[in-house]
TrEMBL record:
Stretch list, region Disordered: 361-380, 437-482
Biased composition annotated in UniProt, kind: Basic and acidic residues: 361-371, 466-482
Signal peptide extent: 1-24
Name this polypeptide is given: Fucose-specific lectin
Record keywords: Membrane, Signal, Transmembrane, Transmembrane helix
Membrane-spanning segments: 386-408
Amino acid sequence: MSLGYLLVVISSLCLTSCIQPASCASLDAFWTDRAVQIVAQDPVTGDIIYSSCNSNKTVIFPIEKPNVLEVTLKPRNGTALAAAGWSTDDKIVASIVWQTETNALVNGYYECDNDSGKLVRAGDWDMTAEAEIQDIHNETGLSFNVLGEQEGYRAFYHNQASDVMMLCYTTSTGWVDGGTVSQDRRPGTALASAHHGSRNISVVFPRNKDDIEVSQLWKSPNEWALETFPTPLNDSYTNDTSAGYIFREGDFSPQFALPSWDVDVESIGMSIDASRDRSVFYIGADKKLYQVAENKGKWEMASNRSQEIWPVADEPSSSLAVAYESYKGSVWVYYWSNNSIVQAHMNDTGVWQTAVTLPEEPHKAETKEKTPGPVEPSGLSTGAKAGIGVGVGVGALLAGGLLVLLWMRRRKRRASASVDNADVAEVPASIVVSPVSQFPSPALNSPKKVERAETSEMNGQDQPAELEHNNVYHELPGHDGR
């Protein structure tokens, strides 16, 4: 075989295998008191891969030999991902949402095998079939929250008109249509949410080339208040307001702008702290991480951080995942930098720590945090790295092609041995519509008790009423989504 022919073949393989939409690098994360849990999608195979669920404080995310999520309802390549979960006395429980090739939205329920660090599938269910919903955007964003034993799950998505919609689950109802969160139809499918308590929920998404929109749950379970920043809306609008009747303040001069904001950003993240102040995170067109923070109902840009704290992302406007522990105010942000997943972390005193690269194996976990620096290629052609780069030069394409060929050989060998090397028992497939009768309702086994701080409103428009609460509440894991 001539060298020229080989180069053509390699280039073709690279073009077909590596250049894929940025959505192939989907990420999501959720907090537990053992360690943050992360899910991502392999952009070559479409597999959902995840961090080792037996991680202890330090997140272990295997890339060369990834943890592959067992599914029966296959995710489409490029799906958004949304995950939530909690820890019991002896294991992590994860509930993960994805979109299939037929546009259905699926919820998978998994429990951790602590010996192997693998998630064991208990079942996956077509949520939209049970809720009798067919109107789903073919590239919908996704976000997912666990609210508690009584309130259950909330899943957020886009319909074909780009309205933001909600699905609700409790053990008594199963999955049902939760109605509209916002009818303000806008470009972009990035979507995230955060909650404080069982019903105080905010959903965030792009509005236009200048602004971000937030829809916040009011005192009524079905009424959401809309707000935008930096440019505010010119009136009070809710989820009942039709798209053609929602306008921003025309004569208002914003106090700040969103740096390098891209309305088609791959994903967006949100956190909320003990005082109910929210933060929105995104990666700009300049590959830098940005934070818009709320302070007593007023939105403003947070200070930029050094590259040691917020490393530059591999791609502009790319995916990130945000996890948070609201009652302490801790935040974790994950994204691809230098061909690895990095962790940016703000501790419970409000101080951002030096970023770290997630180790692939427990023995590689660093006891001392250090700045992610240049690293040797790890050989992960499984896709978590391939397919993120677009518009690279011919030389890079050829190099990537070689990596893809090597990966294909390794993957084939691993696949042939996967049955013999399995670390966890096979769970029989059971395609049912809902885990209503089979599994416990979503709740922490031993929720932490926190004294409630003085009541403060989440935003300043028309003073939405505070939800009913007791003097002590049980906080659930923070979560966000794409």
